[in-house]
Every structure is written in structure tokens, then in C-alpha cells.
Hints:
The structure is a homodimer.
Chain A: H1 8-27, E1 30-36, H2 42-53, E2 77-83, H3 88-94, E3 99-104, H4 113-122, E4 130-134, E5 151-157, H5 164-167, H6 169-174, E6 177-181, H7 193-203, E7 208-211, H8 220-233
Parallel strand pairs in A: 1-4, 1-5, 2-3, 2-4, 5-6, 6-7
Amino acid sequence: xxxxxxxxxxxxxxxxxxxxxxxxxxxxxxxxxxxxxxxxxxxxxxxxxxxxxxxxxxxxxxxxxxxxxxxxxxxxxxxxxxxxxxxxxxxxxxxxxxxxxxxxxxxxxxxxxxxxxxxxxxxxxxxxxxxxxxxxxxxxxxxxxxxxxxxxxxxxxxxxxxxxxxxxxxxxxxxxxxxxxxxxxxxxxxxxxxxxxxxxxxxxxxxxxxxxxxxxxxxxxxxxxxxxxxxxxxxxx
Amino acid sequence: xxxxxxxxxxxxxxxxxxxxxxxxxxxxxxxxxxxxxxxxxxxxxxxxxxxxxxxxxxxxxxxxxxxxxxxxxxxxxxxxxxxxxxxxxxxxxxxxxxxxxxxxxxxxxxxxxxxxxxxxxxxxxxxxxxxxxxxxxxxxxxxxxxxxxxxxxxxxxxxxxxxxxxxxxxxxxxxxxxxxxxxxxxxxxxxxxxxxxxxxxxxxxxxxxxxxxxxxxxxxxxxxxxxxxxxxxxxxx
Lengths: 237, 237
């Protein structure tokens, strides 16, 4: 007789991740797990993404509604912010009029499914089509903990260098989308986009790659259009 | 009767950190634990530091020695490289003619004292005055694990932004030295050095702060001169 062995913390996490997934499926909500190093630009990227997706009319709400009714326009999104400490990020999101909930991990370097579960249960998910989870700034452990997400997105900042995939292989191979941010800094660094792409494609041939600058706005349209398609038309598991 | 409770992994780590410290004291070697986010420039900074300290004549070896004898010049250093995977960093250091040993943590997001202990026992410490430990790229967990070091040094890259102390408070408050790297990028970012300094000084009034660019070389002399003083004249615990 086979005995099933639960491998401690990872299996326990996976069970709750599946519970999150069921909860999201029931609501028909799409969840994106955003991961990156500290300072790669996660919060700015979320804000630019929220601005971008606000321009897509919502098919489920009808297009004949009054133009002043902002709830009738765009993808309705909410944000879960994960940080060691503080609530500066969720305050920035909330200032945009977007529902945001802050998780403080109290020292832990990644989010776990249980924390996201608690957040989901505290949120008003009525009509929410997209939930963006900003993970703790770290290229290591967040890649190991499933949250029940549809999509794993990672950001690499140009300033971090093009050699990072070799040093943090799990994150680069697990992500469905790689956002290369701060491309406006390329002329001031030794960053080689060709070398990065070559390395990443070897590790993760199906990765979607977007080159953007949250500072100048370059490349963000392509990303938000792609995301809209995923949120509205399909899911990746 | 008081019962002493060891708090699991941290206390176990601390015991081995003390063992490392005793081993270093016996050798009169100074150990620096270098921590930063991925891509903040740790390895480049180590290489620039090694170049800089090579110019300080060693008092213990006499100044009358032959100029061609490079062992007679500078602080003799060795490097312990910590990475999830790969050995690209230790190869870069070894190519400089410096003794380097690579630790692969195999997924773990920080170095522990035990790994450094193993490395120290495998190294040739004869005449070594300075050991630089490059921790895994991460602003969270490395701050929690003592290695037996004399000095905790962290690097913040300008591209990461001036708000990082609030989000990773333990790292910024535990570090003895804060290196702000990539200052050549300041004109191309929204980085506010005054704001950074104000935030950091509130959390860590005694921190030594150096502003450098490993790309242009700016500010590195001040750092290597300071480090030479610490290695040759005193230790911080």
C-alpha cells in the first residue's frame, strides 16, 4: 500500500493554494502573482497596469452606461500587497480608488497561500475580474510558494543586469511572463537585451516577454492588451 | 530552575556563528558579510574593493620586499561566494588571482553560519587578513542569520529607489555600512539621496554611508581607505 507523504510546508501550502483557486473560479476572477527583486518597480508597474486596463470596456457591464459611471468601464481590479512591514504600497494603490489590502509578513520573505486566502476572504470580490498580488521583493522563495494564481509574472529591472536568470533559475523558469522594466536606463548600463533573451528562452521557451519603462510609459500598451486577453478569454494553469 | 530554550534554527545558527568567530580570531582574520538585492552590484563591488585594498602595503610583511612580489603588497583577501546555483561569481573572483570558494545554497535564500564554517575549513587561511562573504541576493533573510562576521555591509542600488529602508527595515538597521551603488544613474532616476539618508539615519544612526559607482569608480577610494582602517586597526562586534 502506498503511503502518501506530505512534504511539510510546501504540501500544506499547495492545499490552501487549491482552495484559493476554487474560490477564484467560483467568482470567475483571475489572479496574477507579481514577483521581483526589491526596487524592480513592482508597485509602479501595478499602478501603470491598473491605469492601462481601466481603458478596456467591460463586456459584462454593457457599453451603453453613463460615461460618468466609472464602474462601467475597464477591467475591475483589486490588489493584495505583500510586504515585510508597512503599508506604503497599499496606500498608493488605494489613492487610485482601487481596493487594496495589505499583508505584512512580519519578517517572512515571501507570501504563502494562507495569507492570500485570508486576504481574499476579507475583500469585497463582487464584480472583481482581476486580482493582482504583489509578492515580497525577493527572487528566491516567492517562486516556491503557489498562491492559487492563474499567472506568475516577474519583473527584472535593467539595472539588475542581464545575468540574473543564471543566478535565480527557479524564478525565471517558473514565470509565465517576464517584464523587463526600466528600459530607459539601457543606454546608461551594460545591459544586453539579446543576451538576456537568449538565456531566458533556453530556461523557459514559452515565457511571454515584455520590455517596458514605467517611467516613460514605453511598452506598457502591449502588456495591458495582452493581459486583457488573458483575463477576459482564458487562463493558464 | 530556569530552562534555556533554544529557538530552533536561529539559536543553532548562532552557536556555529560563534565558532566561526573563534576560528577567525585565532587567525586574526576580519570577515565582512556583504548583502544586497539581486543585481545591486555585489560581485562588481567586491572586485573593485579587492583592487582598492591591493594598494595598501601590508605592515605585517615588511615594506622592503621585492616589488615584483605581489604577496608583499596590499591586504591579502579571500572570498566566499554564496549563490542559489552556479559558480559564475567565484570564477570572476578567481580570475583576479584571488582565492574564492563557491557555496551553492541549493534553493535557500540566505547563507547560514554552517555553510560559512564548511567554507572556512576548506580554505587556505594562511596570511589571509580579510574574508569577504557575498551573501545570496536578498534583502530579507540574510539579515537574520549571523555568520560570525565582524562587519555587515549592505549595498543599495540607486535604481532600487530611495524608499527601500521602510520596506526592508531589518537589513537597513542591522548593517554597519550602507553602500549606495550606481550613483552614476542618479540623473536618470527619481532617486533622492537626501530622503534616503534621512530615512536610514532614523533607523540606524551609526551607519557608515558610502556613495559609489562601481562603473565609474567614483567614491570607491573613500570606502577602501575606511575598510583598510577597520581590517588593520579594529573590529566591530
